[in-house]
Design brief:
Length: 343
């Protein structure tokens, strides 16, 4: 990205950003301070629902991204595909063979019986397509996006690229796909698991996410079905913590993962703390829509494109949008971290 675009965007953001930090543990943004004094990285909790009400982030989030060199989601949504991995074909073949063998067991029949009783459906033991369709329908209703919306995780990654940051992922696509099969296997033996475990989780997260109620989110993850939590959270939290530690040691980075992964005794915050890192919550009541910030960055790009290259002392950037109602306007930081110009 053109350095001038980035500098204009940084300047405009610092004009209307009021960066707040306090001891309120109910925060989705955490500063990761290393034990060896290296520049800090940041950990942020997202929610995997494509709805506009979930992209009104604290101003601190945008400032943290600007201060880092790299941005990481759970997976690299923008650059990674299951088709990029040559081993994926054999992976799916092996999983299909396993699925075919499972359908011949008594555990499978008992699972289908439980589903039919609980949800009032009539799935057949011998119709895997109906079982798959039922599961997909449940997920589609849960994750149905609003018009013109993509996942907040993807939107944040695109914004990071817009302001000149490299992006990547903490996990592989194969790991996340394998999780689906692990959940199915667990349901065969753990009769306390439900087909709507994920739905109940997301409904609870929706309730507490906007208010950044970390303590409530922690109670949700700690209290869910043990088998489901181990597969979806505990083991993956370890994998992501390993990746975070590696990337944070290389360069200041911003890590955006599902909020449920942050908190609790097995959460990423607890695991990083146990490894000697200091994590400090960063909280601000001043919320700014990601749509507004994207428009600001795009305005900066259009300003450069229209011939205002910033070489003249008389060049003045477009004015930033007004701050949200009742927000406090703080002075810009005396030093803004310079970023490298990346292709």
């Amino acid at each position: 990205m053109n350095k001038r675009i980035l500098s204009i965007t940084c300047f405009a953001l610092t004009i209307f950003i009021c960066h707040g930090q306090n001891k309120n543990l109910n925060s989705l943004l955490w500063r990761i301070e290393s034990k060896d004094g290296k520049p800090a990285s940041y950990l942020f909790g997202t929610i995997h629902l494509a709805q506009k009400r979930f992209v009104n982030y604290s101003d601190s989030v945008y400032k943290a991204i600007l201060q880092c060199d790299r941005f990481y989601n759970e997976v690299d949504f923008l650059h990674q595909s299951i088709f990029d991995d040559s081993s994926m074909h054999s992976f799916f073949v092996a999983k299909q063979a396993h699925f075919d063998s499972v359908r011949k067991t008594d555990d499978w029949k008992r699972l289908i019986d439980r589903i039919n009783r609980k949800y009032g459906v009539r799935l057949s033991y011998d119709d895997p397509n109906a079982f798959t369709a039922f599961g997909q329908k449940t997920l589609m209703l849960l994750y149905k996006p609003e018009k013109d919306m993509t996942l907040p995780d993807v939107m944040l990654a695109k914004y990071a690229i817009m302001v000149g940051k490299e992006t990547g992922g903490l996990e592989t696509m194969k790991l996340q796909l394998n999780m689906i099969y692990e959940i199915m296997d667990a349901r065969l033996t753990d009769t306390t698991m439900s087909m709507d475990d994920e739905g109940q989780l997301m409904a609870s997260l929706e309730k507490f996410y906007i208010g950044e109620q970390a303590d409530s989110i922690s109670k949700i993850t700690e209290g869910m079905n043990h088998s489901y939590r181990e597969i979806v959270f505990d083991r993956r939290n370890k994998t992501m913590t390993d990746s975070i530690e590696q990337h944070a040691a290389e360069t200041p980075s911003f890590f955006a993962v599902g909020a449920g992964h942050l908190f609790g005794s097995h959460g990423i915050i607890a695991q990083l703390s146990a490894r000697g890192y200091t994590l400090r919550p960063i909280h601000s009541d001043n919320k700014i829509s990601l749509f507004m910030v994207e428009q600001l960055a795009q305005s900066s790009a259009d300003f450069i494109k229209d011939g205002n290259d910033g070489d003249s002392e008389d060049s003045v950037p477009l004015p930033p949008p007004p701050p949200p109602k009742n927000s406090r306007i703080s002075k810009p930081d005396p030093v803004m971290k310079k970023t490298r110009n990346r292709p």
